[in-house]
Amino acid sequence: MQTMQHQYIERDSGAVRTEPLFGDRVVNLLYHRVRESAPSLFRLVTSSRMTDLLGFVNYDLPFVGGSATARFLGELQVDLGECLDPPGALRTPRQVFERRIRFETCRPMPGERGAVVSPADARVLVGSLSDDSLLLIKDKFFAYPELLGHKLWIGAFSRGDFALFRLTPDKYHYNHVPVSGQVIDIYAIDGSFNSCNPGAIVAEATPYSKNRRVVTIIDTDVPGGTGVGLVAMIEVVALMIGDIVQCYSEEGYCEPREVKPGMFLKKGQPKSLYRPGSSTDIVIFQRGRVRFAEDLVANQYRMDAASRFSQGFGRPLVETDIRVRSLLATSTN
Fold it and tell me: Rounded to 5 degrees, what are φ and ψ at 72?
């Protein structure tokens, strides 16, 4: 059973940080013993019904007393100064996970038209679908054709690049639009609810193309768009994540709407919400249209961080902690 710590790079300081892995012992037991010796039980635990039940027990029961609330917020290190709602409004773990923040001031965004931004507060890895790229890591996390699940879009993004964002339980759980452009397709793909704990990802081959997910295709080569071609934004559920709510707002969190084909989405605005816990975003770009930020690429090869991905996949593979709406990549044009 894998028990090593998991570390990442803090982007602002470049320091190595150790991630507190919530429920790590349970996840290790599930993915290294139950999965191998009791596959039927494993399928039950990662099913929709069990996810709904575990989600209710863990997130919907109210805190008992003010001290329980304070302890929970302290464990997650939630910055209450960022929140729009007063602390007294956070009465259950679900309300903490679904908190809203003053993102316009707390998460500033680069102003360049060709800048692509992070869709979430997350730990990020960048990679390539091209066999001749040094960033080829797709087969570790997903099977590409299966991930998109639509023959038309599989061809459109062939040999392109991608960024993988792992949201941990402490993170702000709204997803924001990484680019400006027009939605030309959005569809859901059914699947299971595998954990996004690093140990579970290493144990379960290509888990992200097996989980339930929503795929949004955005054309950015339109008036007012970011100008980086077609972009696929894939929102992936995880263990105890029962729902992805599409709730795009053009200003703040006002008048949220379901995302539909034909809509123009503005970069940096809220697009969807995970309910609740930890989950994953994957953003895929067409070949040669973007250049990832240099620090994100360099951090992946650092040898001074003990990453479970590095150990499990036999090569340096270290995540960077990134903030929503901060620079991810720039247009190559």
Answer: -65, -45
pLDDT at residue 43 is higher than 60: no
How confident is the model over 233-273, as pLDDT tens digits? Answer: 999 987 655 578 999 999 999 999 999 999 999 999 999 99
- Name the H helices within the chain: 24-29, 35-37, 39-45, 48-55, 66-76, 93-97, 103-106, 138-141, 144-148, 151-156, 198-203, 294-300, 308-313
Cα 256 from Cα 175, distance rounded (Å): 13
- Count the neighbouring beta carbons within 10 Å of the beta carbon of residue 103: 23
Instruction: Return d(Cα 210, Cα 146) in angstroms, integer.
Output: 8
The structure tokens listed for 143 are 């099977």
- Give CA angle at 187 (59, 223), nearest 5°: 110
Total-model pTM: 0.84
Q: Which residue has the tokens 């991630």?
A: 19
Distant-in-sequence, close-in-space partners of 129: CB < 8 Å, separation ≥ 6: 136, 138, 144, 157, 158, 159, 160, 161, 162, 284, 287
What's at 138, amino acid-wise?
K
137-173 pLDDT tens trace = 767 788 888 899 888 899 999 999 999 999 987 888 8
